[in-house]
Amino acid sequence: MRPTIIRTAILTTAICFFMATGAAAELTRDTIKTSDGVLTVHPINHATFVMTWGEHVVYVDPVGGSELFSEFEPPDLILITHIHGDHTSTETMRGVSTDTTRIVGPPTVAEKLGEGVPGELAIVANGETFEVGGIRVEAVPAYNLTEERQGFHPQGRDNGYVVTIGGKRIYIAGDTEDIPEMRALENIDAAFVCMNLPYTMTVERAADAVLEFAPRIVYPYHYRGKGGMSDIDRFSEIVASNPDIEVRLLSWY
Fold it and tell me: Is pLDDT at 30 greater than 90 in this prediction?
């Protein structure tokens, strides 16, 4: 299925900035070798990060204000998973997007952003794909399974993404539990997997899903919730039962 394209207004852009925080043992950036150069991952905060690949710059769920991105070039692609405030910010989008930026998000994101955000918005629902500049984006489901959590992320509303860059398949979970569609993923080279309560899933369920779909690299992210930080050491310990999966800890907080 082809996505719906919406052209939005042109606005002057502020360029982006990356500020590293967190423990010394965590990475302030990481690299993945592709068939066409190196893909670099820059964690920003919580669910927000930047990927750079050659001349391409991809922002994922940019929030927190444009000043957080001032050391980066303007994005040619922005991926937004859903409408919650830790994933969608109209103010931040107005500061980082340009008239040449392609923005990908589900229908509810288009409604939340409204007018005044520069760029070209592609409305992409679960199962649809979008391609730009040699980067392929597939929207995959992201939703809650547990009855008391279903109001946070109902099935069919939000997106996760599988992004293919230089032959590498990168899974971005968004906000979700360990749904069957996640467990059925194949040939994932790197995965960003959430684990915070009450909104997504436990560390144990996240680790169990990772062991099933077996990405080559997994980045825990989105692991702060109402109860504080999730136990990513415990996550790493469980995933270590499969030595072919490498857990890489980035500096998110």
Answer: yes
Q: Residue 104 and residue 80: Cα distance in Å, rounded?
A: 6
Predicted model pTM: 0.89
b/e code 27-51 from CB counts within 10 Å (16+ = b): beebebebeeeebebbbbbbbbbbb
Residue spans of beta strands (DSSP E) within the chain: 4-7, 30-34, 37-45, 48-53, 56-60, 77-79, 102-105, 120-123, 129-132, 135-142, 158-165, 168-172, 190-193, 217-220, 224-225, 228-229, 246-247
Can you give the pLDDT at residue 1?
A: 54
Q: How many CB atoms lie within 10 A of CB 163?
A: 22
Query: In whole angstroms, what is the distance from residue 219 CA to residue 92 CA?
Result: 24
> How far apart, in whole angstroms, are the C-alpha atoms of residue 54 and residue 88?
26
What residues are paired with 135 via a beta bridge? Answer: 132
> What is the rounded end-to-end Cα distance, in angstroms, of the chain?
38
Say how far apart CA 202 and CA 179 lie, in whole Å: 13
Comparing C-alpha atoms, which of 29, 64, 33, 30 is closest to residue 46?
Answer: 64
